[in-house]
């Protein structure tokens, strides 16, 4: 998500809508990826290790974006059109669900040696959404 491009004050409705569009795109990508993983079935251990590594590498970006969107809630609430906080709350919940769905697809198709790794990663990513969801719920 591009929340880091949204300024701490004086942001525009167009910028906020772009963040929502990015979130929707990521949700769709995760849902498609989960479906693809499920239809493909079990990958090789090398492939699963590469997938796990790629996801682990991207986790810091996800965490940074989640912290950033928490910090910018006042700027979103200051926009001339109300309702962005509720829209972003729904986006956050949908992103969390799509992330867990993708993680579960990987868990269900992973070789036994990597199930615990994918499970831990999925749980950690899901938990990372909780602070942002809590902030946008209030």
Automatic annotation (TrEMBL):
<dbReference type="InterPro" id="IPR021054">
    <property type="entry name" value="Cell_wall_mannoprotein_1"/>
</dbReference>
<dbReference type="GO" id="GO:0005576">
    <property type="term" value="C:extracellular region"/>
</dbReference>
<protein>
    <submittedName>
        <fullName>Hydrophobic surface binding protein</fullName>
    </submittedName>
</protein>
<dbReference type="Pfam" id="PF12296">
    <property type="entry name" value="HsbA"/>
</dbReference>
């Amino acid at each position: 998500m591009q929340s880091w491009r949204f300024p701490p004050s004086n942001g525009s409705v167009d910028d906020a809508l772009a963040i929502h569009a990015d979130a929707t795109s990521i949700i769709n990508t995760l849902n498609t990826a989960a479906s693809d993983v499920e239809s493909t079935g079990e990958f090789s251990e090398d492939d699963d290790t590469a997938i796990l590594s790629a996801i682990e590498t991207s986790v810091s970006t996800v965490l940074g974006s989640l912290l950033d969107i928490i910090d910018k809630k006042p700027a979103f609430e200051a926009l001339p059109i109300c309702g962005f906080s509720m829209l972003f709350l729904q986006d956050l919940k949908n992103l969390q669900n799509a992330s867990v769905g993708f993680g579960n697809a990987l868990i269900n198709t992973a070789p036994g040696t990597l199930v615990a790794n994918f499970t831990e990663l999925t749980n950690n990513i899901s938990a990372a959404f909780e602070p942002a969801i809590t902030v946008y719920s209030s």
